[in-house]
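input
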Amino acid sequence: QVQLVESGGGSVQPGGSLRLSCAASESLFSINYMGWYRQAPGKERDLVARISIGGSTVYADSVKGRFTISRDIAKNTVYLQMNSLKPEDTAVYYCYSSNPVVSWGQGTQVTVSS
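output
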C-alpha cells in the first residue's frame, strides 16, 4: 500500500491562496491516479481534483479555474494549488492514490474565513 504524507493546510481569508502537497512512498509511474478529495462537516467526501499516470487532469466543477493539480515526478509529490478560496472550500482535504489499491493520506484542514 502506498504511504501518503500531506502538508500545507491552514487558515486563510476569502480570496486567498494555499498550496497542498502530497508525498508518495512510491514512484508516481507506479500509481494510476493521485488526487484530492475533501470532506466538510456533515457532508460526504467528494473528489476535488485528480491527475493520471499520463498527466491528464480532472476537476470538480466547483473548483475549475481556481484550483490546479500538478506533480513533481522526481519528488514523488503531487500538489494542489488553491487560489481565490471561498468559505465553501472549508473542509478536510485528503490526498489519495489508486494503483488500483486505494490509499489515503491523513487529511489536512483548510479553513477559509474572514
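quick obs: The first strand starts at residue 4 and ends at 7.
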